[in-house]
Design brief:
single chain; alpha/beta; 10-stranded mixed beta sheet; two-stranded antiparallel sheet; 11 helices; 20% strand; globular; binds 3-isopropylmalic acid; binds manganese (II) ion
Length: 361
């Protein structure tokens, strides 16, 4: 029987509550599909930081490298200055483990309220491939003459050809395997580059050239499209059915996936994966630690459950992944009244039970 070694980092706020439910469903899937999971919990997050001053030490990163995969709840706490935990834990893990892809499906499940009039599960069904280790997130820059009227602040969007190319290749491969044609939903697989070539004439020039070169040479059957980031936001609202797979840089990917999350029912259901295709990946809901709902048992665990589902799929347990997805569809389509915290008609753990029971059946 196959055994997966999984590091579990519940983190802050509602992170632990939703992680418990994801683990509950994971165990149900393991029983049903005959694989084993060996879970090791890590307490990185605000409490440990406040107690010890430690975020994610280098020794912990080395420890994490030994696992097959990582399941993360949420990082961030209102008492800790913004940036410390995010940079020290979340971004450090992404960078050090070279999780260069952030895969974020924008998928409206049955029964989920969509704020876009006239749009349903057929229209909202695409994926954003966000580059995850470069761009504005590298922290390149600095401040000089701080506190003076002449203070200078610089923060650079840094991309190498290597980074751009590996991300694009992942996105083309993804479109080939999971695009709308591959899924029987259309007559072609399409990859759209989201950029800003009219203003960011260096960085997105590099992206655009690489996009067409690689597409032409190695993925000629994949339809290529280009959208500026502002127009992308517009079409994500007006004509989301145009999209299939979108690839973009780190900052734009961060922003457009929050918009995408709202169109798929909100942070309660939006999942993501920080993927190193050759190494250790880390799966997390795309929303944050939701401090105002902490400890009340009202937060929606489906985003965490769906992130765990992506983890299982990435590990290659396709049948289990499909079953978990079906179980989530069953819960959204037949049970939950709303995706919003406190309005689901069920508690956090009852939602976990519903999905776990559907998986076990
Ligand atoms: C996300 C988050 C993070 C990001 C923050 C918490 C650093 O917003 O995962 O989208 O900007 O990547
Ligand atoms: Mn974000």
């Amino acid at each position: 029987m196959k055994t997966y070694k999984i590091a579990v980092m519940p983190g802050d706020g509602t992170g632990p509550e939703v992680t418990v439910e994801a683990v509950k469903v994971l165990k149900a899937a393991a029983d049903k599909f005959n694989f084993k999971v060996e879970l090791t919990e890590f307490d990185f997050g605000s409490e440990r930081y406040k107690r010890t001053g430690e975020t994610l030490p280098d020794s912990a990163v080395d420890e994490l490298r030994k696992f097959d995969t990582i399941l993360l709840g949420a990082i961030g706490h209102p008492d800790v200055k913004p940036g410390i935990l995010e940079k020290g834990i979340l971004l450090k893990a992404r960078f050090e483990l070279d999780q260069y892809i952030n895969l974020r499906p924008v998928k409206l499940y049955p029964g989920v309220d969509c704020p876009l009039k006239g749009k349903g599960p057929d229209e909202i069904d695409y994926v954003v491939v966000r580059e995850n280790t470069g761009g504005l997130y590298t922290g390149t820059g600095g401040i000089s003459m701080k506190g003076t009227p002449h203070e200078v602040a610089v923060q650079s969007a840094v991309y190498t050809r290597f980074q751009v190319e590996r991300c694009l290749r992942y996105a083309f491969e993804y479109a080939r395997k999971h695009g709308k044609k591959a899924r029987g939903k259309g007559d072609k697989n399409t990859l759209a580059l989201c950029g800003k070539t009219n203003v960011l004439t260096y960085v997105y020039d590099l992206w655009e050239r690489a996009f067409h070169e690689i597409g032409q040479a190695d993925y000629p059957e994949i339809e290529r499209e280009y959208y500026h980031v502002d127009a992308t936001c517009m079409w994500m609202v007006k004509n989301p059915e145009w999209f299939d797979v979108i690839v973009t840089g780190n900052m734009f990917g961060d922003i457009i996936t929050d918009l995408g999350a709202m169109t798929q029912g909100g942070m309660g259901i939006a999942a993501g994966g920080n993927i190193n295709p050759e190494g250790v990946s880390m799966f997390e809901p795309i929303g944050g630690s939701a401090p105002k709902y902490t400890g009340q048992g009202v937060i929606n665990p489906l985003a965490a459950i769906c992130s765990m589902q992506m983890m299982i799929e990435t590990l290659g347990e396709d049948a289990a992944a499909q079953k978990i997805e079906d179980a989530v569809r069953f819960a959204t389509g037949n049970k939950l009244k709303s995706m919003q915290a406190g309005r689901m008609g069920y508690s956090t753990s009852e939602v976990g039970d519903l999905v776990a029971e559907a998986v076990a059946q």
